[in-house]
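Reading is simple: each integer encodes one residue's backbone shape. The lines below illustrate:
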Amino acid sequence: MLVLEFVSTVRATRSGLLDTLSDVEGMTGWGRAHAAELGLTAAFTATEDLWREVVELRQAVRALLAKAVAPGPASSADADRLPGFAESLDLVNAAALAAPLAPRLDWPAEGAPVATSVPAGERGESPRVRAALARSAIELLAGPAREQLRACPAPRCVLYFVKEHSRQEWCSVGCGNRARAARHYHQHKSR
């Protein structure tokens, strides 16, 4: 899910938080890795403005995810530094509208017609990128997967994930192992 990959550009490592989008070069690399989903070419190069706008959008989306997992705890990465809910909601909605989509009918010579969505009018890269990211966030938050959205409770983990089965507690096997190891350590340390 694009929105979860987007908000996971902030993640924990052993040495602290790592922000994949910490600079323009990071945004360029991440944009190229997700070019198809964002409507970019393989030669995409981020600008300073696009980078700032995308990072601002990421914080707004993280604020909405934090509200969606409530009353459970939000991600510890930035729970104390997130923008307000109303401001975040407005920003995500405005970003989604910045590059509206229109249906287009494609009808190959040897096949059935297929409907695709294309940008309605010419838009720059920043509105297209932000609109794709905002639409992905809206689809998650307004869809049935929202009920399964969780912040990973593992020590030092700052990721959000969609719970895929009833016994899933963590975002990954690695986080589950770290959580069990930490629990085991604390149980045996107090003896």
About this structure: Residues 151 and 160 are 4 Å apart (CA to CA). The longest strand covers residues 101-106. The chain has one domain: 2-189. The domain at 2-189 is CATH 1.10.3300.10 (Jann2411-like fold).
